[in-house]
Amino acid sequence: MDDPARLRNNLRKLLDLDFDILLVGDGESILRDAKARLKELVETFPD
User: Fold this and answer.
1) Is 17 helix (H, G, I), strand (E, B) or coil?
2) DSSP-assigned letter for residue 43
3) Which pLDDT tens digit goes with each residue over 5-47?
4) Rounded-to-integer distance, Cα 11 and Cα 13, Å
């Protein structure tokens, strides 16, 4: 998280993919409706 703007941009790019599960290396994985939950998070980001 050294570059928050880059992190936000990369998370936005994930929404271009079709997925339902999001497995992460650090933190809690999302095992269903992951794309919808990620979209909710991205919508909170400043422009």
Assistant:
1) coil
2) T
3) 999 999 999 999 999 999 999 999 999 999 999 999 999 998 7
4) 5
pTM of the model: 0.83
Task: Confirm if 45 and 35 have CB atoms less than 8 A apart.
Answer: no
Residues sharing a CB contact under 8 Å with residue 34, sequence separation 6 or more, in sequence order:
19, 20, 21, 22
Residue 41: both structure tokens together: 């998070």
Q: Residue 26 carries which DSSP code?
A: S
Residue 40 to residue 11: CA distance in whole angstroms: 11
